[in-house]
Design goal:
single chain; 135 residues; mainly beta; 9-stranded antiparallel sheet
Length: 135
């Protein structure tokens, strides 16, 4: 009986131990920082299609304070600042055009260390958007 109890304690000790992952990525917690444009995605009615855009060497930069926004991407050329609307939406301010802002859904995927931005308007009925990697 004594040996059975010792075996049970040892068995529970090994079962309850968890192995730590060897490669832990630094996970972005906010939009702040510089993001490199890595892919675009869209759909024509079926599953999403992803195309690499790394060769374009384009980026966006969310300032850590004040909401200022910089970029070298033509698609965001009129955006001068941003506001976080909630945990899944960001509004880009476009003072030089009408309407004066554009709303995007955003998601930071901690498993791939990527940011996705998708327009929250009628333009992407089937689904479309941009993928970014942190710099």
């Amino acid at each position: 009986m004594k040996y059975l109890l010792i075996a049970l304690v040892l068995l529970l000790t090994f079962i309850s131990c968890k192995k730590q992952p060897e490669n832990i990525r630094k996970e972005p917690e906010t939009l702040s920082g510089k993001w490199n444009y890595s892919q675009r995605f869209y759909s024509i009615g079926g599953p999403l299609i992803y195309e690499s855009t790394k060769n374009l060497k384009q980026w966006i930069l969310f300032a850590t304070s004040g909401g200022s926004f910089s970029r070298n991407m033509p698609d965001f050329k009129n955006a001068t600042s941003y506001e976080i609307v909630d945990s899944g939406k960001v509004k880009f301010n476009l003072p030089s055009q009408q309407p004066g802002s554009r709303l995007f859904f955003y998601k930071i995927d901690t498993s791939t260390n990527a940011l996705s931005l998708s327009p929250a308007d009628f333009i992407c009925i089937e689904g479309c958007g941009y993928m970014f990697e942190p710099q």
